[in-house]
């Protein structure tokens, strides 16, 4: 593959110019291996990239480390199969979430995505509220969101569910698929898997993300898949690392480990985009700072009373706005994490990764 096959373009050429002048070469992160080691693809092929000690002095927070889909600047070690990563190029889009734990840390799930597929299984694990949360994060990422309702062979009311989800996500394409019957797979390929495009599949465990990717790649064993529990349709984490996989059409797809819970990170804009209908109503309210609770002249409450706005949708909007407001005072100033060396020591203190001959195994 050439860099152009991976998505390199003239805009990246301009951004990379200072690094080229320093003798560095561009590469794209295709998989996370272990700790601060990555499989990266250069113009000459794939090598093992490492964020060495110097990178720790540049990266002040964990989100500044490479993620799958990132473009990086690196220097080969004596022309061999290993390289030192010196910088991460500015991200065009990024899908992120708040990392586990009490600290306010952003975790980048995938970067430079064109389309993010929010996959939900049409079995007992179906959860409309989870779709709304993923949709907010997708809008915030800058990528184009698409909802996939998978496992349609297990649902008798597919059309009704699709209409409900379309009402939940106005303006967002909703696809119905089944890897068992191959329903919707042709549309998925022809509409979105175009050459040079990067696609990411997001969703909880057991919804069929890996199976969908295997169908796009036309290899049933490209990524591991697993059965779900019969009693609640919950699946195991068969995907243990993020990886960029090429499809026969020339598009790239990223599979991500299943997320049972999505802890949103700084998604004010994403909330407004996901609930654009409420935002449009709010602009007609009498007061510019209307809280849509009991204020006179509230256009949102008027639409609710007239049956034009579903109560569940307003409830979800209020909940997400309250969640963002609650976490805002706890946000640290830029660079504050750098003064607390816990995360930095955790990464630096780990033993080096022993690279195998076949890093994809």
Report on this structure.
With 361 residues, the chain is of the alpha/beta class. It folds into three domains: 81 residues, Nucleic acid-binding proteins (OB fold (Dihydrolipoamide Acetyltransferase, E2P)); 162 residues, 3-Layer(aba) Sandwich (Rossmann fold), CATH 3.40.50.300; 53 residues, Probable gtpase engc, domain 3 (Ribonucleotide Reductase Protein R1, domain 1, Orthogonal Bundle). The protein has eleven helices and 13 strands. The strands form three sheets. A six-stranded mixed β-sheet has the order 10-9-8-11-13-12, with helices on both faces. A five-stranded mixed barrel has the order 1-2-3-5-4. The chain is globular.
Question: What's this entry about, in short?
Answer:
The chain has 361 residues and is an alpha/beta fold. Helix content is 29%, strand content 21%.
Give the SSE layout.
Elements: H1 10-21, E1 25-34, E2 37-42, E3 45-50, H2 53-58, E4 71-76, E5 82-88, E6 94-98, E7 106-111, E8 115-121, H3 128-141, E9 144-150, H4 158-168, E10 174-176, H5 185-192, E11 198-202, H6 209-217, E12 243-246, E13 252-255, H7 268-274, H8 276-282, H9 299-305, H10 311-327, H11 342-348
Parallel strand pairs: 3-5, 8-9, 8-11, 9-10, 11-13
Antiparallel strand pairs: 1-2, 1-4, 2-3, 4-5, 6-7, 12-13
Helix pairs in contact: 3-7, 7-8
List keywords for this structure.
OB fold (Dihydrolipoamide Acetyltransferase, E2P), Ribonucleotide Reductase Protein R1, domain 1, 13 strands, Rossmann fold, 5-stranded mixed β-barrel, globular, 21% strand, alpha/beta, 361 residues, 6-stranded mixed beta sheet
